[in-house]
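Batch job 17 of 40 flagged for manual review because the log was empty.
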Amino acid sequence: MKTSIAALATAASLTFGFAASSASAMEMELNMITGAVFNTLSSAGLPTDVIQQLSLAEIAEIQLTLHGGDGEGEKMRVIRNILARHQ
């Protein structure tokens, strides 16, 4: 019985540790993407003060737009429209 409880406790702690490390990795990735979007907005002369208000979907949309095949003018138009939702 003690062995079963110990095994269960070990499995639970390993599962929690894995979940915590996955969450930490996801948070680091989100911070990197947000930082890249911030730098792009800043270098393009676009407002950066709304970046904290953007949803994860909006940050992803901006990132995808930046790396898409559209011309620079179209990319900036899409990004300005996203930012305008928060101004």
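Reviewer: the log was empty due to a logging misconfiguration, but the result itself is present. The helical segments are 2-43, 56-66, 72-84. Unflagging and moving on to job 18.
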